[in-house]
Design a protein that fits this description.
heterodimer, A: 311 residues, mainly alpha, two-stranded antiparallel sheet, 2 strands, globular, B: 365 residues, alpha/beta, Rossmann fold, seven-stranded parallel beta sheet, six-stranded mixed beta sheet, 13 strands
Chain lengths: 311, 365
Amino acid sequence: MSAENVPQVVQILAQGVAAATPYLYAGLGEAVGQRSGVYNLGVDGIMLMGAFTAFYTVYTTESLAAAVLFAAIVGALMGLLMAFISVTLRAEQGIGGIGLYIFGLGLSTLLFDKLVSTPLPVNGFPDMPIPVLSDIPIIGPILFDHNLMVYGALLLTPVAWFVLNKTTLGLNIRAVGQNPQAADSLGVNVALVRYLTVTFGGLMAGIAGASLSIALTNIFQHNMTNGIGFIAVALVYFGGWSPLGILFGSLLFSIVTTLQLWLQAFGVQISPSLTNMMPNLATIVALILAVRFYRTSAPLALGRPYKRGEN
Amino acid sequence: MKTRFLAMSIVLVVVLALSSIGLPHSAPVLAQTQAATMAPLTKPIKIAIIMPSAKNDLAWSQAMYDSLVSVQKELGGDKLVQLTVIENMFQVPDAAANAQKFAQQGYDIVILHGTQYGASMFDVAAKFPDVSFAWGTSTDVGKDKGLKNVFAYEARAEEGGYVFGTMAAMMSKTGILGVVGPVNAGDAKLYIDGFEQGAKAANPKVEVKKIFTESFGDIPKATEAAKTLISQKADILTGSAQQVPGAITETQKAKLIWFSTDTDQSVKWPDTVAASMVYDWTAMLKDMIATRVAGEKGGKAYDISLKNGSLKLVFNSKVKVPDEVMKAAKDTMQKIIDGSLIVVGSPAAMAAATAAPTMAATASK
């Protein structure tokens, strides 16, 4: 993006929108799982495995499409594992998720050390401004001058909203998350729905990781997510389990993060410790205001394993 | 969980860095040339090192690890120098537990490679007076705690920073330089303050934009910081800590120039990294081992500097640097070495500041 004629406010917004990409993929995927009643704290570990898989694929094959595909597959497999632990084994989901996170962190670190061993830049997704649309003043650079993974994340939001709210599948997901016994009695296969949603959540987390290593930064390093996966899970709560809320939360968090970096570079005399807190503070303030103005409640069966005849 | 421990570690680093400013510094012992004539080892020596990041992080940990391996080779291989390496130890309590374990197992030297380990290290050192402990960056050898078994080491990063700042200010076409900083403490602070001072000395009108991520390992944020600086027209960038590879790659994408720290990073970004300030800890390590073998268990504070040759500035011939800039760099290095140029943050500058606070306040602007 040429910085020549673009006002700085627009540049900040554009950079912030792009930076929201991993939060969006991970958050939307996690929201689908949580709407069905399962929460997965292992998102960060899955993101790390997705990031490494995508990085290594590009490093060895130069194929971006294959990188995203393999990251999605790895993510889906880890999601499947979480589904097995949470739905079939009915283990405590918080602990299962943290275990998955530690597994993803350790395995991605080990694979990186054995296969690559030192940080190396790769050729990730290039910027692809959309013709005509990217020339629109203000909106153009903010929404239409990014790479494919950013576009994917932005498009995913209305798709997720539509599926959750306007399709039978979405109805079943929500029903299973609110009242699995009732859903079960009406013929919905609760376990299958949860397997699908949690695997999907893992798939999305894998893609979120890929967006980090081959779109936002073009490199891989140990623990490069630095907690983004946990923020994404938090954003599901802040977003009220709704795709639009998660979009808002991700954009708010990322734009404020970008803003604080710009403020530091402008030389604003505030301690970096304080400015780095801004995104988190902004999100908390937004949550307080949101709760005041509209009720957001968790899916009633969130975190509770289901077995027919029990509960 | 992890984020919380990382935040705690950062707070600890900042607090330790702040608290160290007021402490009287024991006079640093420069790495001795006696190490070059060190007597060969007659019995094996066991060394353990605990590092906050990976040994191949291209930065802080790798610089020490590479030096250790080189010393091991030089002194007779792994039979005579038994090395145990613990990486990615970003949890400070785990580091202390490991240090204790090594002490109990009778290791000769236990190195805790990070300022964040200091407080816990002193606790363990007090319990095991026969084991030598080493830590950095610091000058505190525990004299005020009555300890005799602690080595400390520091890098005179402000010297390399000053030279690179001078070069960057002369080479910049936009007059704007960018710094991707981690936590503004320790050798990162020394480097960045030196960089700014050197830049302004070469060109008083130059603007040095600094962004601190408040982390040593936040790769996405460091990358975003580089993007921000580039958007704000910085055409020469620098930074510190293991989080920089994403930032350097951004710089490479924009076809700009980067000045590196810790290790020679031009091998990965040959068209981008103009020069690297490399920490070569080998002379210090050899002196530490020689001191221990001679019977002294600690009490020395080392620093690596341009003068003693352990702070090395490695220039990348693939990045074109104008002749007058190279000449200015060499002249500046010479002035720092012979003491005619005092860089902010150096022992000489701090001595001058304590002697004449009003003078130092105006001089540092």
